[in-house]
Write a structure and sequence with these properties.
This protein has 292 residues and is of the alpha/beta class. The chain is 46% helix and 16% strand. Helix 11 packs across helix 13. The longest helix has 21 residues.
């Protein structure tokens, strides 16, 4: 098997460079494509440094899944991996993913853990727990019902069979849910990436609200009013339930002390997400999408 990597980039060229240095040092990576929608095309500065990396730049902000799926047609490897520029893969990331795909030929999607940043302010640590708390290493390898959007790989044939979702620029969660409903299995392996924050505090709060709204809108799409109202009513408990879930995961990973230090920030972020879900269940997606 061979692997291609899609790197979505929309923030810091410095972190993107760190990500690319790791990937270009891995012999299994047949092709690396950076899809970017930041204000300045990173190919200007990083193209000469990484001549074998292809850069695709969009002049306007577009969502991460739309960036990812826009270049699928250019890749011809059996396995396609996807990582955000702010997540730096371990040196054996490609090899570990490929080995997992070879050992699990019927599994369409395989992901891995997301390690915390080496240094972070309290709100950035809370950001990490809020987004990736369920995927803090160590995690057991095996069948899973959820994968982190920051650390993904797919069998290309399985992706191409879901053209409606790809062409619609839909999030990977809908792709995974479709496969699970069909009886397919998702899989977690030890292919690790390390998160490094590049967002501002205000931008992240706005993102949590927008992503929560989008998740809820997708969840109840085409459903009648009563189920929407029922889901919305449950949102009052959601900040506490989400925080407890994250806290349990942190405790089992030996990160209880770090979690307690940033607890107030975690509650704030989970409240923003829950408010977004509430609005999404009642009003659906906004007419104009926010891109972060």
């Amino acid at each position: 098997m061979s692997i291609s990597i899609i790197v979505t980039s929309y923030e810091s060229p410095r972190i993107l460079e760190c990500c690319l240095r790791s990937l270009t040092g891995q012999p299994e990576a047949k092709k690396i494509v950076v899809v970017d929608c930041s204000s300045v095309d990173p190919a200007i500065t990083l193209g000469p440094v990484f001549p074998n990396v292809k850069f695709v730049h969009y002049g306007t902000r577009i969502a991460v899944p739309a960036m990812r799926w826009s270049v699928i047609g250019e890749l011809d490897t059996e396995v396609v991996a996807a990582v955000e520029a702010r997540c730096i893969p371990a040196p054996d990331w490609c090899a570990t993913l490929l080995r997992a795909h070879e050992e699990n030929p019927d599994v369409p999607a395989i992901g891995g853990p997301v390690a915390p940043p080496l240094t972070a302010r309290l709100w950035e640590l809370a950001l990490f727990f809020s987004e990736y708390g369920s995927f803090v290493p160590p995690i057991p390898s095996g069948a899973a019902v959820n994968l982190s959007g920051a650390n993904l790989s797919y069998k290309r044939a399985a992706l191409l069979a879901e053209q409606d979702l790809l062409e619609g620029g839909r999030w990977e969660t809908l792709l995974h849910l479709r496969w699970l409903k069909r009886g397919k299995t998702l899989y977690l392996t030890q292919a690790e990436v390390r998160f490094e924050n590049t967002m501002s505090l205000i931008a992240f709060v706005r993102q949590r609200f927008a992503y929560g709204r989008g998740y809820a809108a997708d969840r109840v799409e085409s459903r009648p009013v009563l189920p929407r109202l029922a889901y919305a009513a449950c949102c009052i408990l959601l900040p506490f339930l989400l925080t407890i879930r994250i806290g349990r995961s942190a405790l089992t990973k030996g990160l209880g002390g770090s979690f307690v230090k940033c607890l107030i920030w975690v509650i704030l972020f989970q409240t923003a997400w829950s408010a977004g879900e509430f609005v999404g269940y009642l009003k659906g997606v906004p007419r104009k999408s926010n891109i972060f």
